[in-house]
Design a protein that fits this description.
Low-confidence stretches: 411-415
Order of helices and strands: HHHHHHHHHHHHHHHHHHHHHHH
Mean pLDDT: 85
Largest sheet: none
Structural class: mainly alpha
Number of helices: 23
Number of strands: 0
């Protein structure tokens, strides 16, 4: 097992590698499309590019049970290194597409980036879980999140700033080069974690049962599982609808790349990390259930700040206020939601079950979110964002019913 300090450094840097590709299939890509004159309906459909993040649990067992392409590096690093090389090449390829001339080519490359990024996530999550003892998992996750958020800073406002002065090609080539951070970490910093005891294969039928069937069977044996899965899928529906349209919304109001880069840069990162930290304290103080209710309500009402910005027009102070409220409340809600999801997993199937639940939570963004452009075109910005606020109500109702019937175990309670 690697020394804890080295393991935490590796997780910080691997978190950076995991976060870097995400905006290239989301916010940054949509900004690029908006500047290329793509209609809002088409921009909304880019949410479908990230379906790989939703269905990553489908091929997650392959990374557990198939021989890694670079097996000499180990079970986890043997997957990470080739995937990171492929990701760097795919991001570089994105630099040589032009959505104004051939949006389909850009989308195809972005789909490849999403698939490779989701595969990297699977490997990093497994590495993170296996690298540290249970008592240090919280520290490991914190290191990972810091690296992840710093990468989002580089791939969104950082990319916007580079594009402003040197063009989008230079921005994407710079991000491709930054994938070298993840590769260098895999090769020189990370140490292959000690492999968990895996039952003897006994043929592909038994492998399939151990890797796929048993984790799902265990999850579906929980009391109230249909309610649980419905809540997980709908909790972030309102946020998903609003989030897909954020980049074109800012551009429609007349904000420049540098305006967006300034507010979503260090300030946005600080607001998000403050929200996550406060959310963690809130969960510890009042418990997962009460924290979910409080933060879920704040997350829903934060969408009204988009309405305020739509009515204010190109107002830089209102933009800063909107980003502050959105990022803090999202951080708060994420902390409570992740705590709830983590409590649902069985220690025997942590990786697969968490991959399933986190994938399910992404369903609204990748499905309903795809319709957001058409809704915004049909309704206009103010009615659209009012609709996104109301869209959070079904998830809130399911949450209240779920917590009343099946309250989560809180700190100090035993199974």
């Amino acid at each position: 097992m690697p020394r804890p300090d080295r393991a935490l450094a590796a997780l910080l840097l691997l978190g950076f590698s995991a976060g870097l590709p995400l905006p290239l299939t989301g916010f940054t890509l949509r900004q690029w499309f908006a500047e290329a004159g793509i209609p809002l309906g088409g921009i909304g459909l880019t949410a479908l590019i990230g379906l790989a993040y939703t269905f990553k649990f489908v091929w997650a067992p392959v990374l557990d049970h198939a021989r890694a392409p670079l097996a000499a590096l180990g079970r986890r690093r043997g997957w990470l290194a080739p995937v990171q090389i492929a990701l760097a090449l795919a991001i570089a390829a994105l630099a040589f597409t032009d959505p104004a001339r051939d949006a389909r080519a850009t989308v195809l490359v972005a789909v490849a980036i999403a698939f490779l990024s989701a595969t990297q996530d699977i490997a990093i999550d497994a590495f993170r879980i296996e690298s540290l003892p249970p008592s240090r998992q919280g520290l490991g996750l914190a290191a990972y999140v810091w690296g992840y958020r710093i990468a989002l800073l580089a791939a969104s406002p950082g990319a916007f700033a580079i594009a402003e002065y040197a063009g989008w090609r230079a921005a994407f080539l710079s991000l491709a080069a930054l994938m070298g951070v993840g590769l260098a970490t895999t090769l020189f910093v990370a140490r292959e974690p000690r492999a968990r005891a895996i039952p003897a294969p006994g043929g592909w039928a038994r492998r399939l049962r151990i890797a796929v069937v048993d984790p799902f069977r265990d999850l579906l044996a929980r009391p109230g599982w249909p309610l649980i899965l419905a809540f997980v899928a709908l909790f972030k529906l309102g946020e998903a609808l609003a989030g897909v349209m954020t980049a074109p919304f800012y551009r429609a109001l007349g904000f420049s790349r540098l305006d967006v880069a300034a507010v979503s840069g260090v300030f946005g990162l600080a607001a998000t990390l403050a929200g996550v930290t406060l959310g963690g304290v809130l969960v510890a103080r009042i418990g997962v259930g009460r924290a979910l209710i409080a933060t879920g309500l704040m997350q829903m009402l934060s969408n009204l700040m988009y309405v305020a910005l739509a009515e204010a027009g190109r107002s830089v102070p209102v933009l800063w206020l909107q980003v502050a409220v959105e990022n803090i409340t999202d951080g708060l809600a994420d902390a409570a939601f992740v705590a709830y999801l983590s409590g649902l997993t069985s220690t025997a199937f942590t990786a697969t079950q968490y991959a399933l639940l986190s994938s399910l939570a992404a369903v609204p963004l990748r499905t309903f979110g795809a319709s957001s452009g058409y809704l915004a075109e049909a309704l206009g910005w103010t009615p659209f964002f009012l609709l996104t606020t109301a869209a959070a109500l079904p998830g809130m109702a399911l949450m209240l019913a779920l917590l009343r019937r099946f309250p989560p175990r809180e700190n100090g309670e035993t199974a």
